């Protein structure tokens, strides 16, 4: 059994989420933006904790019975421990419990680890957004992915 604790994020978690954002992304979202996600009705925000420390998060928006993964991040020193997989299983379970049946996302073409994770979780590649992400070389394509079966693999 995992020593990780997974739960929805609350406004009280804002400072830890903001700090983790700065470790995960070159252009982190502002605390104002994050507060909107943590307090907004149509958003789902989940975290994985190790010893009272936020080590990973997933932020999603929802419309009717669909969700879109906006961001997922794992503390750099904790990567490679399966936290993103554990977090995504939890996200799928929570979405399924809320009668949300489809999750969509976009991922950098160069992010091979994330793409492999999503494929293992049952996502399919649906298309490409050319030049969507800024990069050191100008721009990078986004791979569009979706999963229409959010039941955990063990329950399939």
TrEMBL record:
Domain N-acetyltransferase: 4-150
A GO term from the CC aspect: ribosome
Ribosomal protein in keyword set: yes
SUPFAM superfamilies the record matches: Acyl-CoA N-acyltransferases (Nat)
Pfam families for the chain: Acetyltransf_1 (PF00583)
InterPro entries noted in UniProt: AcTrfase_RimI/Ard1, Acyl_CoA_acyltransferase, GNAT_dom, YpeA/RimI_acetyltransf
Similarity-based family: Belongs to the acetyltransferase family. RimI subfamily.
Protein name: Ribosomal protein S18-alanine N-acetyltransferase
Source species: Amphritea pacifica
């Amino acid at each position: 059994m995992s020593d990780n604790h997974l739960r929805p994020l609350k406004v009280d978690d804002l400072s830890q989420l903001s700090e983790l954002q700065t470790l995960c992304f070159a252009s982190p979202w502002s605390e104002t933006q994050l507060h909107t996600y943590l307090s907004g009705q149509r958003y789902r925000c989940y975290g994985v904790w190790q010893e009272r420390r936020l080590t990973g998060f997933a932020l999603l928006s929802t419309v009717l019975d669909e969700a879109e993964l906006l961001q997922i991040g794992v503390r750099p020193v904790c990567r490679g421990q399966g936290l993103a997989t554990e977090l995504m299983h939890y996200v799928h379970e929570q979405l399924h419990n809320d009668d949300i049946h489809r999750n969509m996302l976009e991922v950098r073409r160069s992010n091979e680890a994330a793409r492999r994770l999503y494929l293992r979780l049952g996502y399919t590649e649906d298309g490409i957004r050319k030049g969507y992400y800024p990069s050191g070389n100008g721009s990078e394509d986004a791979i569009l992915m979706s999963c229409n079966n959010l039941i955990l693999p063990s329950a399939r």
